[in-house]
Design goal:
nine-stranded mixed beta sheet; Rossmann fold; 13% strand; alpha/beta
């Protein structure tokens, strides 16, 4: 019997339909691989050339000019099409090249299409040109771990997500030893150009590589990648050169579909608040886009909180002829109160459920937390420098770290010298939950940044929210509104007159669709006392129907926490990101073929229709500025924050109250749907870009 079953299973496995169903090659995959993205109009011509564009200017950092003298004078270059150039131009354009490409940093949907664009343009120009892929990030350049990319490998990854073709890594080429090894690799492979596909730190790498490899005549081109959306380039006059990095749209859409499903679940099960943390350590672009995509009830934007001013505190201080510096910027406690207000207002109209979107770096926007981070960063950096060791190795457990901080505070008290960590800091830090203390003292990342992704940001905030909701519940300020129709039906069913009990029970009995129990009624005992004082009952027990209404009005606050990060960055790209990244690849080759180096490939006018897109090269050097990293000032590419004056944010702000939906009407949730590669209903740009384009026009 067993052998017959085994035989039949083997026959079933050989069945063509079973093979089709269990194959890893799906119809969606085949459709994606075969899709050919449209190209910008300049790429429809046989050749391209570069024109320096004098319409843009940058305020150049003196240190950038000192460290990057060979590329600091680069200009913005517009890519233009050309039909029939002279023979000298054609000879240079068609020459055989060896080009290396590397992924750097976290994956972002569209990276494979950048490579596909470079490959197609390079092979079209000269079939003998070789494109090398460095494996596992910058380490591949340092260690000369490279493979030559051929058509079969490139075709296998067209329009697919991830950085699977080459893998990726986060190593920085930031020492003379590493730079020497890079030069050895370039010499061994007879390299003409290197393309670095990465975020702000990776493009910083590209700038220094371009500087160092200038004399060797090896070109270096950067490509802006990050799902966080924090690489956006404007000149010093605010003119937009790059509105968004590739990968952002896909990640936002992937998160939005899942969070939209949670909105649907919440409004179906009517008992959970879904707390959704999305990636975005420094900037809240993803949170803003996802909020616009889903109409979640509460969406926090870090830049908005950092910009907060408490006018009531300012007015109070002005009346007392003083200055209250705590009025500027949002505190953690105040933030928890704002969230509580939304929860309480929704509960009052029967909606004890909802969805909250929180960017992972929200704590960086909170005053006292930011102060702790700055101080602890300095303490850890100073310790490592002074002792020539590692703080986290010397103090492996939390109690060891806390004891070191206590010693610092005691030294301050005993010496009377102003110190970075005093007893007040120590007392405030001890009030923080232990898991959050551990988070604030966790090891910094390779760039010296506090790792917000390792801290349960949502748990910190919602812990304060739940504590305050408990206080409000005890005070009678947090209640579930009872629908008037249901109240009347419940009492009438027991033969009771709703109008007799209503004025005694509810503070708004004469108005409103949802009835709110009086604040003084906080227990069955106070319920009976209120009914007795109003003459509704005497010695008898509270009617069961009235007790039922009371129990229904007492909220139970339940949460489900979710983190949206790696799933979105590993998603297959939207059509927008497929087209965008492929054209970035074509732009990269155009920059290389025309001799550029130290430039970032970009597409101008992304916020407009595809027909208006303009490929350009942006000089990386002038974008660099000094920033503190690991206790030192270092040149880096500046991250772009959410512009609170942008049309997208202003529109989002205008709809906050409507999307909170703290009224008897239906919720205003939006259903963006899954990422669809084909179909007329698929959006062609991120909502933030569309709104900004409409607002500015």
């Amino acid at each position: 019997m067993t052998s017959n079953i085994a035989g039949s299973i083997q026959d079933l496995i050989e069945n063509p339909e079973v093979k089709k169903l269990t194959d890893n090659i799906t119809p969606e995959l085949m459709e994606r691989r075969s899709y050919q993205p449209p190209v910008c109009s300049v790429f429809s011509l046989p050749y391209t050339f570069l024109k320096d564009n004098a319409d843009y200017r940058f305020d150049i950092d003196k240190e950038a000019a000192r460290q990057l003298p060979r590329i600091i004078g680069n200009k913005v270059q517009s890519v233009s099409g050309l039909d029939s150039p002279d023979e000298n131009f054609m000879g240079n354009y068609h020459e055989k090249r060896n080009i290396g490409v590397v992924f750097s940093g976290g994956p972002a949907p569209g990276g494979h299409n950048v490579i596909a664009g470079i490959f197609d343009a390079a092979k079209k120009s000269n079939p003998d040109t070789k494109l090398y892929g460095f494996l596992e990030g910058p380490d591949g350049i340092i260690e000369n771990e490279a493979i030559e990319l051929d058509v079969s490998r490139v075709d296998a990854y067209r329009n697919l997500g991830g950085f699977t073709m080459l893998k990726t890594g986060r190593t920085k080429i930031n020492s003379a030893e590493k730079m020497a090894k890079v030069k050895e690799t370039c010499k061994a492979l007879d390299m003409d150009a290197i393309v670095i596909i990465g975020g702000d730190d990776s493009n910083t790498n590209a700038a220094f590589l371009a500087q160092e490899l200038f004399e060797e005549k090896i070109q270096v081109i950067g490509v802006p990648k990050t799902i966080d959306g924090d690489i956006q380039v404007k000149d010093s006059n605010g003119k937009i050169l790059c509105a968004m990095s590739f990968g952002f749209h896909t990640a936002a859409r992937a998160y939005s579909n899942d969070i939209s499903n949670l909105c649907t679940d919440g409004s179906s099960d009517v008992k959970y608040w879904h707390i959704c943390k999305v990636m975005g350590r420094v900037a809240s672009h993803l949170a803003l886009e996802v909020g616009l995509q889903t109409h979640a009830n509460i969406t926090l934007v870090g830049e908005d909180l950092a910009d907060y001013v408490d006018q009531s505190r300012i007015e109070k201080a002005r009346a007392e002829n003083t200055v209250d510096y705590n009025a500027y910027g949002m505190t953690l406690r105040h933030l928890s109160r704002l969230i509580c207000d939304g929860i309480v207002r929704r509960a009052a109209v029967g909606k004890n459920y909802g969805t909250i979107i929180i960017p992972e770096g929200i704590l960086e926007s909170i005053n006292e937390i930011q102060m702790f981070i700055i101080k602890l960063n300095a303490i850890i950096s100073d310790y490592n420098k002074t002792h020539d060791t590692d703080f986290h190795s010397d103090f492996p457990v939390l109690e060891d770290k806390l004891e070191y901080l206590r010693r610092l505070a005691r030294q301050f008290r005993e010496s009377g010298v102003i110190a970075i960590w005093n007893e007040r800091d120590n007392d405030l830090f001890n009030d923080i939950p232990e898991f959050f203390q551990e988070g604030l003292l966790t090891e910094r990342d390779s760039h010296g940044n506090f790792q917000f992704s390792k801290v349960e940001t949502d748990r910190v905030i919602m812990g304060l929210v739940m504590d305050y909701l408990d206080i409000l519940k005890e005070q009678g300020g947090y209640r579930i509104g009872i629908q008037r129709r249901y109240y009347r039906k419940t009492l009438a069913k027991e033969g009771l007159d709703p109008d007799f009990y209503g004025p005694a029970l509810f503070e708004n009995y004469l108005q409103g669709e949802y009835l709110i129990l009086k604040e003084s009624i906080i227990s069955l005992k106070t319920l009976k006392h209120t009914l007795e004082s109003e003459g509704c009952v005497h010695d008898e027990e509270v009617p069961k129907a009235v007790e039922k209404i009371y129990n229904l009005s007492i909220p139970v606050f339940k949460t489900q926490r979710h983190f949206y990060g790696y799933d979105g960055r590993g998603n297959d790209p939207t059509r927008f990101d497929c087209i965008y990244s492929y054209n970035l690849g074509l732009t990269v080759f155009s920059l290389i073929a025309n001799g550029a180096t130290g430039q970032m490939a970009a597409i101008k006018n992304l916020e407009h229709d595809f027909g208006k897109w303009e490929p350009i090269g942006i000089p990386i050097g002038p974008l660099m500025h000094l920033e503190e990293r690991k206790g030192k000032l270092m040149l880096v590419l500046e991250k772009s924050l959410v512009d609170l004056d942008s049309p997208a944010f202003r529109i989002f702000e205008a709809f906050r109250e409507k999307w909170l939906a703290a009224d008897a009407a239906a919720d205003n949730y939006r259903r963006p749907g899954p990422v669809r590669f084909a179909g007329k209903s698929e959006e062609d740009r991120p909502i933030t870009l569309v709104l900004n384009a409409l607002g500015l026009s």
